[in-house]
Amino acid sequence: MKQGTAAQRLVLWIAILASFVSFLDGSVINVALPAISRDLGGGLTTQQWVVDAYLITLGSLILLAGSLSDVLGRILILRIGLVGFGLTSLVCAFAPTAEVLILGRGLQGIAAALLVPSSLALITSNFDGAARAKAIGQWTAGTTVAFIAGPIVGGVLVDTVGWRTVFGINVVPIAVTMYLLSVLGMSDTKAQGVRIDYAGAVLCVLGLGGPVYALIEQGNYGWGSPAILAPFVVGVLCLAGFIWRQATAKQPLMPLSLFAVRNFGIGNIATTFIYAALSIGGLIVVLFLQQVAGFPATWAALATLPISVLNIVLSTWFGSLAGRFGPRWFMAFGPALCAVGYLLMVTSQVPVNYWTQLLPGIVLFGVGLSATVAPLTSAILGSISKQQSGIGSAVNNAVARVAGLVAIATLGLIVGTTLDLGGFHRVLVVTAVLLAIGGLVSAIGIQNPAKVRTDGPGGEAVQ
To answer: CATH no. for residue 267?
Structure first.
Protein backbone atom coordinates (compact mmCIF):
# COMPACT_ATOMS: atom_id res chain seq x y z
CA MET A 1 0.00 0.00 0.00
CA LYS A 2 1.36 3.41 -0.95
CA GLN A 3 2.63 5.31 2.06
CA GLY A 4 0.40 8.14 3.28
CA THR A 5 -2.76 7.07 1.41
CA ALA A 6 -6.27 7.67 2.72
CA ALA A 7 -6.61 3.91 3.24
CA GLN A 8 -3.49 3.90 5.41
CA ARG A 9 -4.82 6.73 7.53
CA LEU A 10 -8.08 4.85 7.97
CA VAL A 11 -6.20 1.67 8.91
CA LEU A 12 -4.27 3.64 11.52
CA TRP A 13 -7.45 5.06 13.04
CA ILE A 14 -9.05 1.61 13.16
CA ALA A 15 -5.97 0.16 14.84
CA ILE A 16 -5.89 2.99 17.39
CA LEU A 17 -9.59 2.79 18.25
CA ALA A 18 -9.69 -1.03 18.44
CA SER A 19 -6.78 -1.03 20.88
CA PHE A 20 -8.25 2.00 22.64
CA VAL A 21 -11.16 -0.14 23.82
CA SER A 22 -8.99 -2.62 25.71
CA PHE A 23 -6.58 0.05 26.97
CA LEU A 24 -9.53 2.15 28.17
CA ASP A 25 -10.87 -0.73 30.21
CA GLY A 26 -7.42 -1.44 31.63
CA SER A 27 -6.92 2.18 32.70
CA VAL A 28 -10.39 2.82 34.09
CA ILE A 29 -10.52 -0.23 36.34
CA ASN A 30 -7.71 0.82 38.68
CA VAL A 31 -9.48 3.96 39.81
CA ALA A 32 -12.71 2.01 40.43
CA LEU A 33 -11.17 -0.79 42.53
CA PRO A 34 -11.58 0.81 45.99
CA ALA A 35 -15.27 1.50 45.29
CA ILE A 36 -15.79 -2.03 43.96
CA SER A 37 -14.27 -3.63 47.06
CA ARG A 38 -16.33 -1.36 49.34
CA ASP A 39 -19.52 -2.36 47.51
CA LEU A 40 -18.89 -6.07 46.87
CA GLY A 41 -16.37 -6.83 49.65
CA GLY A 42 -13.23 -8.92 49.55
CA GLY A 43 -10.53 -6.27 50.12
CA LEU A 44 -7.20 -6.57 48.32
CA THR A 45 -7.96 -10.12 47.13
CA THR A 46 -11.07 -8.97 45.24
CA GLN A 47 -9.12 -6.07 43.77
CA GLN A 48 -6.39 -8.41 42.54
CA TRP A 49 -8.91 -10.80 40.98
CA VAL A 50 -10.85 -8.05 39.21
CA VAL A 51 -7.61 -7.08 37.47
CA ASP A 52 -6.10 -10.54 37.03
CA ALA A 53 -9.22 -12.36 35.79
CA TYR A 54 -9.04 -10.04 32.78
CA LEU A 55 -5.30 -10.51 32.38
CA ILE A 56 -5.41 -14.32 32.69
CA THR A 57 -7.73 -14.78 29.72
CA LEU A 58 -6.17 -11.91 27.78
CA GLY A 59 -2.61 -13.10 28.30
CA SER A 60 -3.27 -16.79 27.73
CA LEU A 61 -5.59 -16.47 24.72
CA ILE A 62 -3.91 -13.63 22.87
CA LEU A 63 -1.64 -16.17 21.16
CA LEU A 64 -4.66 -18.15 20.00
CA ALA A 65 -6.24 -14.88 18.84
CA GLY A 66 -3.13 -14.06 16.83
CA SER A 67 -3.40 -17.40 15.02
CA LEU A 68 -7.14 -16.92 14.49
CA SER A 69 -6.52 -13.49 12.96
CA ASP A 70 -4.07 -15.01 10.50
CA VAL A 71 -6.37 -17.95 9.63
CA LEU A 72 -9.79 -16.27 9.63
CA GLY A 73 -8.76 -12.69 8.79
CA ARG A 74 -7.78 -9.75 10.98
CA ILE A 75 -10.83 -7.65 10.18
CA LEU A 76 -13.27 -10.47 11.01
CA ILE A 77 -11.51 -11.11 14.33
CA LEU A 78 -11.59 -7.38 15.11
CA ARG A 79 -15.34 -7.29 14.55
CA ILE A 80 -15.95 -10.32 16.76
CA GLY A 81 -13.73 -8.84 19.47
CA LEU A 82 -15.51 -5.49 19.42
CA VAL A 83 -18.99 -7.03 19.72
CA GLY A 84 -17.82 -9.44 22.41
CA PHE A 85 -16.21 -6.67 24.42
CA GLY A 86 -19.41 -4.65 24.37
CA LEU A 87 -21.53 -7.57 25.58
CA THR A 88 -19.16 -8.61 28.35
CA SER A 89 -18.95 -5.02 29.54
CA LEU A 90 -22.68 -5.26 30.27
CA VAL A 91 -22.07 -8.39 32.36
CA CYS A 92 -19.56 -6.43 34.46
CA ALA A 93 -21.81 -3.39 34.77
CA PHE A 94 -24.74 -5.39 36.17
CA ALA A 95 -22.74 -7.89 38.26
CA PRO A 96 -24.58 -8.50 41.58
CA THR A 97 -21.60 -10.09 43.35
CA ALA A 98 -17.82 -10.02 43.23
CA GLU A 99 -17.80 -13.52 41.75
CA VAL A 100 -20.01 -12.48 38.81
CA LEU A 101 -17.88 -9.39 38.24
CA ILE A 102 -14.71 -11.49 38.19
CA LEU A 103 -16.36 -13.88 35.70
CA GLY A 104 -17.36 -10.91 33.53
CA ARG A 105 -13.82 -9.58 33.65
CA GLY A 106 -12.51 -12.94 32.49
CA LEU A 107 -14.93 -12.88 29.55
CA GLN A 108 -13.83 -9.32 28.76
CA GLY A 109 -10.26 -10.55 28.58
CA ILE A 110 -11.24 -13.09 25.93
CA ALA A 111 -12.74 -10.33 23.78
CA ALA A 112 -9.75 -8.05 24.37
CA ALA A 113 -7.42 -10.85 23.23
CA LEU A 114 -9.04 -10.61 19.81
CA LEU A 115 -8.45 -6.87 19.53
CA VAL A 116 -4.85 -5.99 20.30
CA PRO A 117 -2.80 -8.33 18.04
CA SER A 118 -5.13 -7.81 15.08
CA SER A 119 -4.98 -4.03 15.36
CA LEU A 120 -1.18 -3.91 15.58
CA ALA A 121 -0.88 -6.44 12.75
CA LEU A 122 -2.91 -4.09 10.55
CA ILE A 123 -0.25 -1.43 11.07
CA THR A 124 2.75 -3.68 10.52
CA SER A 125 1.24 -5.14 7.33
CA ASN A 126 0.36 -1.74 5.83
CA PHE A 127 3.40 0.37 6.75
CA ASP A 128 7.12 -0.12 6.09
CA GLY A 129 10.45 1.11 7.50
CA ALA A 130 10.53 4.52 9.15
CA ALA A 131 6.85 5.03 8.27
CA ARG A 132 6.02 1.93 10.32
CA ALA A 133 7.98 3.26 13.31
CA LYS A 134 6.17 6.59 13.04
CA ALA A 135 2.78 4.87 12.69
CA ILE A 136 3.46 2.80 15.79
CA GLY A 137 4.37 6.03 17.58
CA GLN A 138 1.04 7.53 16.47
CA TRP A 139 -0.74 4.35 17.58
CA THR A 140 0.99 4.67 20.97
CA ALA A 141 0.03 8.33 21.28
CA GLY A 142 -3.53 7.65 20.16
CA THR A 143 -4.13 4.75 22.50
CA THR A 144 -2.62 6.80 25.32
CA VAL A 145 -5.73 8.95 25.16
CA ALA A 146 -7.35 5.98 26.90
CA PHE A 147 -5.07 6.59 29.86
CA ILE A 148 -6.43 10.14 30.07
CA ALA A 149 -10.10 9.51 29.27
CA GLY A 150 -10.34 6.29 31.29
CA PRO A 151 -9.16 7.36 34.74
CA ILE A 152 -10.60 10.87 34.63
CA VAL A 153 -14.03 9.95 33.28
CA GLY A 154 -13.98 6.84 35.45
CA GLY A 155 -13.08 8.84 38.54
CA VAL A 156 -15.91 11.29 37.94
CA LEU A 157 -18.38 8.45 37.37
CA VAL A 158 -17.25 6.59 40.49
CA ASP A 159 -17.60 9.72 42.63
CA THR A 160 -20.99 10.74 41.18
CA VAL A 161 -22.98 7.90 39.59
CA GLY A 162 -21.13 4.78 40.76
CA TRP A 163 -18.47 2.31 39.64
CA ARG A 164 -20.82 0.25 37.48
CA THR A 165 -21.07 2.99 34.88
CA VAL A 166 -17.35 2.83 34.11
CA PHE A 167 -17.97 -0.30 32.05
CA GLY A 168 -20.24 1.65 29.69
CA ILE A 169 -17.77 4.26 28.49
CA ASN A 170 -16.31 2.01 25.80
CA VAL A 171 -19.56 1.96 23.81
CA VAL A 172 -18.63 5.01 21.68
CA PRO A 173 -15.18 3.82 20.51
CA ILE A 174 -16.64 0.37 19.74
CA ALA A 175 -19.41 1.90 17.58
CA VAL A 176 -17.01 4.25 15.77
CA THR A 177 -14.54 1.44 15.03
CA MET A 178 -17.28 -0.80 13.64
CA TYR A 179 -18.35 2.04 11.35
CA LEU A 180 -14.80 2.72 10.13
CA LEU A 181 -14.31 -0.98 9.37
CA SER A 182 -17.36 -0.85 7.10
CA VAL A 183 -16.01 2.29 5.40
CA LEU A 184 -12.56 0.74 4.88
CA GLY A 185 -13.95 -2.14 2.84
CA MET A 186 -10.58 -3.90 2.82
CA SER A 187 -10.52 -7.56 1.83
CA ASP A 188 -9.38 -9.90 4.58
CA THR A 189 -6.20 -11.85 3.96
CA LYS A 190 -6.27 -15.43 5.23
CA ALA A 191 -3.40 -17.84 5.63
CA GLN A 192 -3.91 -21.13 3.81
CA GLY A 193 -3.30 -24.57 5.31
CA VAL A 194 -2.80 -23.30 8.85
CA ARG A 195 -4.00 -25.44 11.77
CA ILE A 196 -4.66 -23.91 15.17
CA ASP A 197 -2.97 -25.40 18.23
CA TYR A 198 -5.94 -25.74 20.58
CA ALA A 199 -4.05 -28.12 22.89
CA GLY A 200 -1.39 -25.45 23.34
CA ALA A 201 -4.09 -22.90 24.16
CA VAL A 202 -5.54 -25.11 26.92
CA LEU A 203 -2.09 -25.73 28.42
CA CYS A 204 -1.40 -22.00 28.35
CA VAL A 205 -4.63 -21.12 30.18
CA LEU A 206 -4.04 -23.76 32.88
CA GLY A 207 -0.35 -22.91 33.11
CA LEU A 208 -1.10 -19.28 33.90
CA GLY A 209 -4.30 -19.71 35.88
CA GLY A 210 -2.97 -22.20 38.44
CA PRO A 211 0.07 -20.24 39.68
CA VAL A 212 -1.81 -16.93 39.62
CA TYR A 213 -4.62 -18.43 41.73
CA ALA A 214 -2.03 -19.69 44.22
CA LEU A 215 -0.21 -16.34 44.41
CA ILE A 216 -3.41 -14.39 45.04
CA GLU A 217 -5.11 -16.81 47.45
CA GLN A 218 -2.02 -17.87 49.46
CA GLY A 219 -2.75 -15.06 51.89
CA ASN A 220 -6.11 -16.67 52.70
CA TYR A 221 -5.09 -20.34 52.82
CA GLY A 222 -1.31 -20.41 53.34
CA TRP A 223 1.28 -22.04 51.10
CA GLY A 224 0.97 -25.37 52.91
CA SER A 225 -2.70 -25.79 51.98
CA PRO A 226 -3.58 -28.34 49.26
CA ALA A 227 -5.92 -25.67 47.85
CA ILE A 228 -2.81 -23.63 47.04
CA LEU A 229 -0.18 -26.29 46.36
CA ALA A 230 -2.31 -28.34 43.94
CA PRO A 231 -3.17 -25.55 41.47
CA PHE A 232 0.35 -24.17 41.72
CA VAL A 233 2.01 -27.51 40.88
CA VAL A 234 -0.52 -28.37 38.16
CA GLY A 235 -0.11 -24.90 36.67
CA VAL A 236 3.68 -25.13 36.58
CA LEU A 237 3.48 -28.57 34.94
CA CYS A 238 1.00 -27.26 32.35
CA LEU A 239 3.25 -24.28 31.66
CA ALA A 240 6.17 -26.66 31.07
CA GLY A 241 3.88 -28.74 28.86
CA PHE A 242 2.98 -25.62 26.89
CA ILE A 243 6.65 -24.85 26.18
CA TRP A 244 7.23 -28.48 25.14
CA ARG A 245 4.17 -28.34 22.91
CA GLN A 246 5.43 -25.18 21.21
CA ALA A 247 8.79 -26.81 20.56
CA THR A 248 7.29 -29.96 19.02
CA ALA A 249 4.02 -28.92 17.34
CA LYS A 250 4.07 -28.51 13.56
CA GLN A 251 2.10 -25.27 13.79
CA PRO A 252 2.54 -23.91 17.33
CA LEU A 253 0.70 -20.96 18.83
CA MET A 254 4.03 -19.40 19.77
CA PRO A 255 6.77 -20.34 17.30
CA LEU A 256 9.90 -20.53 19.45
CA SER A 257 11.94 -19.81 16.33
CA LEU A 258 10.80 -16.18 16.61
CA PHE A 259 12.92 -15.83 19.73
CA ALA A 260 16.02 -16.73 17.72
CA VAL A 261 15.63 -13.32 16.05
CA ARG A 262 17.81 -11.18 18.30
CA ASN A 263 15.68 -8.06 18.66
CA PHE A 264 12.49 -10.10 19.00
CA GLY A 265 13.92 -12.32 21.73
CA ILE A 266 15.75 -9.60 23.66
CA GLY A 267 12.88 -7.17 23.17
CA ASN A 268 10.45 -9.60 24.77
CA ILE A 269 12.78 -10.12 27.73
CA ALA A 270 12.85 -6.35 28.19
CA THR A 271 9.06 -6.28 27.79
CA THR A 272 8.68 -8.79 30.64
CA PHE A 273 10.47 -6.57 33.16
CA ILE A 274 9.12 -3.24 31.89
CA TYR A 275 5.46 -4.26 31.73
CA ALA A 276 5.59 -6.06 35.07
CA ALA A 277 6.79 -2.74 36.50
CA LEU A 278 4.16 -0.69 34.68
CA SER A 279 1.37 -2.94 35.94
CA ILE A 280 2.16 -2.90 39.65
CA GLY A 281 3.52 0.66 39.61
CA GLY A 282 0.43 2.14 37.97
CA LEU A 283 -1.94 0.18 40.20
CA ILE A 284 -0.21 0.95 43.49
CA VAL A 285 -0.11 4.73 42.94
CA VAL A 286 -3.87 4.91 42.33
CA LEU A 287 -4.68 2.60 45.26
CA PHE A 288 -2.33 4.52 47.60
CA LEU A 289 -3.81 7.89 46.71
CA GLN A 290 -7.34 6.67 47.47
CA GLN A 291 -6.89 4.20 50.32
CA VAL A 292 -4.01 5.81 52.24
CA ALA A 293 -3.84 9.46 51.16
CA GLY A 294 -7.64 9.79 51.13
CA PHE A 295 -8.00 11.24 47.61
CA PRO A 296 -11.42 10.91 45.92
CA ALA A 297 -11.39 8.74 42.78
CA THR A 298 -11.46 11.79 40.50
CA TRP A 299 -8.43 13.42 42.13
CA ALA A 300 -6.53 10.13 42.16
CA ALA A 301 -7.12 9.89 38.41
CA LEU A 302 -6.08 13.50 37.80
CA ALA A 303 -2.88 12.91 39.76
CA THR A 304 -1.55 10.67 36.98
CA LEU A 305 -2.72 12.97 34.16
CA PRO A 306 0.82 14.28 33.42
CA ILE A 307 1.86 10.77 32.31
CA SER A 308 -0.83 10.63 29.65
CA VAL A 309 -0.23 14.20 28.46
CA LEU A 310 3.49 13.57 28.08
CA ASN A 311 2.83 10.36 26.15
CA ILE A 312 0.51 12.11 23.71
CA VAL A 313 2.96 14.95 23.17
CA LEU A 314 6.17 12.91 22.98
CA SER A 315 5.38 9.37 21.75
CA THR A 316 5.18 10.19 18.04
CA TRP A 317 8.40 12.22 18.27
CA PHE A 318 10.26 9.43 20.04
CA GLY A 319 8.84 6.92 17.54
CA SER A 320 10.19 9.00 14.66
CA LEU A 321 13.59 9.38 16.33
CA ALA A 322 13.77 5.63 16.89
CA GLY A 323 12.98 5.12 13.21
CA ARG A 324 15.90 7.40 12.26
CA PHE A 325 18.53 6.46 14.84
CA GLY A 326 17.45 3.00 15.95
CA PRO A 327 15.57 1.93 19.09
CA ARG A 328 18.43 0.67 21.29
CA TRP A 329 19.29 3.68 23.43
CA PHE A 330 15.70 4.89 23.67
CA MET A 331 14.83 1.48 25.12
CA ALA A 332 17.76 1.83 27.52
CA PHE A 333 17.43 5.35 28.90
CA GLY A 334 13.60 5.39 28.81
CA PRO A 335 13.16 2.68 31.48
CA ALA A 336 16.07 4.18 33.45
CA LEU A 337 14.24 7.53 33.65
CA CYS A 338 11.08 5.68 34.69
CA ALA A 339 13.01 3.93 37.47
CA VAL A 340 14.38 7.20 38.81
CA GLY A 341 10.87 8.63 38.75
CA TYR A 342 9.55 5.83 40.96
CA LEU A 343 12.48 6.15 43.36
CA LEU A 344 11.72 9.87 43.76
CA MET A 345 8.24 8.92 45.01
CA VAL A 346 9.77 6.91 47.89
CA THR A 347 10.13 10.27 49.70
CA SER A 348 6.34 10.39 50.15
CA GLN A 349 4.95 10.54 53.68
CA VAL A 350 1.52 10.79 55.30
CA PRO A 351 -0.12 13.29 55.04
CA VAL A 352 0.73 13.28 51.34
CA ASN A 353 1.90 16.44 49.58
CA TYR A 354 1.25 15.54 45.97
CA TRP A 355 3.10 18.51 44.47
CA THR A 356 6.43 17.90 46.17
CA GLN A 357 6.38 14.16 46.97
CA LEU A 358 4.74 12.58 43.92
CA LEU A 359 4.52 14.99 40.96
CA PRO A 360 8.29 15.23 40.19
CA GLY A 361 8.56 11.43 40.00
CA ILE A 362 5.36 11.15 37.95
CA VAL A 363 6.64 13.69 35.40
CA LEU A 364 10.01 11.96 35.07
CA PHE A 365 8.27 8.62 34.68
CA GLY A 366 6.02 10.07 31.96
CA VAL A 367 9.00 11.28 29.92
CA GLY A 368 10.75 7.93 30.30
CA LEU A 369 7.63 5.99 29.33
CA SER A 370 7.20 8.14 26.20
CA ALA A 371 10.76 7.28 25.17
CA THR A 372 10.23 3.57 25.77
CA VAL A 373 6.96 2.25 24.37
CA ALA A 374 7.05 3.15 20.66
CA PRO A 375 10.74 2.21 20.16
CA LEU A 376 10.18 -1.06 22.06
CA THR A 377 7.21 -2.04 19.91
CA SER A 378 8.95 -0.94 16.73
CA ALA A 379 12.14 -2.89 17.54
CA ILE A 380 10.25 -6.11 18.24
CA LEU A 381 7.77 -6.07 15.36
CA GLY A 382 10.26 -4.54 12.92
CA SER A 383 12.60 -7.50 13.39
CA ILE A 384 10.24 -10.05 11.84
CA SER A 385 8.53 -10.39 8.46
CA LYS A 386 5.13 -9.00 7.53
CA GLN A 387 3.82 -12.57 7.26
CA GLN A 388 4.67 -13.07 10.93
CA SER A 389 3.27 -9.72 12.09
CA GLY A 390 0.04 -11.20 13.44
CA ILE A 391 1.65 -13.87 15.59
CA GLY A 392 4.57 -11.55 16.44
CA SER A 393 2.33 -8.86 17.86
CA ALA A 394 0.29 -11.52 19.66
CA VAL A 395 3.39 -12.98 21.30
CA ASN A 396 4.66 -9.58 22.40
CA ASN A 397 1.27 -8.58 23.81
CA ALA A 398 0.99 -11.94 25.56
CA VAL A 399 4.39 -11.41 27.17
CA ALA A 400 3.36 -7.92 28.33
CA ARG A 401 0.01 -9.07 29.74
CA VAL A 402 1.42 -12.15 31.44
CA ALA A 403 4.16 -10.03 33.01
CA GLY A 404 1.51 -7.70 34.41
CA LEU A 405 -0.63 -10.65 35.48
CA VAL A 406 2.13 -12.26 37.52
CA ALA A 407 3.29 -8.93 38.96
CA ILE A 408 -0.17 -8.05 40.24
CA ALA A 409 -0.65 -11.58 41.59
CA THR A 410 2.48 -11.08 43.74
CA LEU A 411 1.27 -7.71 45.05
CA GLY A 412 -0.02 -9.25 48.25
CA LEU A 413 3.40 -10.75 48.98
CA ILE A 414 4.99 -7.29 48.75
CA VAL A 415 2.27 -5.20 50.42
CA GLY A 416 0.83 -7.63 52.97
CA THR A 417 -2.86 -7.91 53.79
CA THR A 418 -3.45 -4.14 53.98
CA LEU A 419 -1.89 -1.34 51.95
CA ASP A 420 0.00 1.20 54.08
CA LEU A 421 2.87 3.67 53.56
CA GLY A 422 5.54 1.01 54.06
CA GLY A 423 3.90 -1.33 51.57
CA PHE A 424 3.63 1.52 49.07
CA HIS A 425 7.34 2.27 49.38
CA ARG A 426 8.25 -1.41 48.92
CA VAL A 427 6.26 -1.64 45.69
CA LEU A 428 7.87 1.57 44.41
CA VAL A 429 11.34 0.10 44.94
CA VAL A 430 10.41 -3.21 43.28
CA THR A 431 8.95 -1.27 40.34
CA ALA A 432 12.14 0.77 39.95
CA VAL A 433 14.32 -2.36 40.03
CA LEU A 434 12.21 -4.06 37.35
CA LEU A 435 12.42 -0.98 35.12
CA ALA A 436 16.17 -0.69 35.57
CA ILE A 437 16.61 -4.35 34.59
CA GLY A 438 14.47 -3.79 31.48
CA GLY A 439 16.63 -0.84 30.44
CA LEU A 440 19.84 -2.78 31.07
CA VAL A 441 18.65 -5.74 29.00
CA SER A 442 17.86 -3.36 26.12
CA ALA A 443 21.22 -1.57 26.34
CA ILE A 444 23.14 -4.84 26.22
CA GLY A 445 21.04 -6.88 23.83
CA ILE A 446 19.12 -4.71 21.35
CA GLN A 447 20.75 -4.04 17.99
CA ASN A 448 19.88 -1.06 15.81
CA PRO A 449 18.88 -2.17 12.30
CA ALA A 450 21.29 -1.42 9.48
CA LYS A 451 20.58 1.95 7.91
CA VAL A 452 19.35 1.94 4.34
CA ARG A 453 20.66 4.55 1.92
CA THR A 454 19.75 5.18 -1.68
CA ASP A 455 23.08 6.17 -3.23
CA GLY A 456 23.84 2.95 -5.07
CA PRO A 457 24.07 2.74 -8.89
CA GLY A 458 20.76 3.93 -10.32
CA GLY A 459 19.62 5.14 -6.89
CA GLU A 460 18.71 1.71 -5.61
CA ALA A 461 18.70 0.95 -1.87
CA VAL A 462 22.04 -0.11 -0.44
CA GLN A 463 22.61 -1.58 3.05
So the answer is: 1.20.1250.20
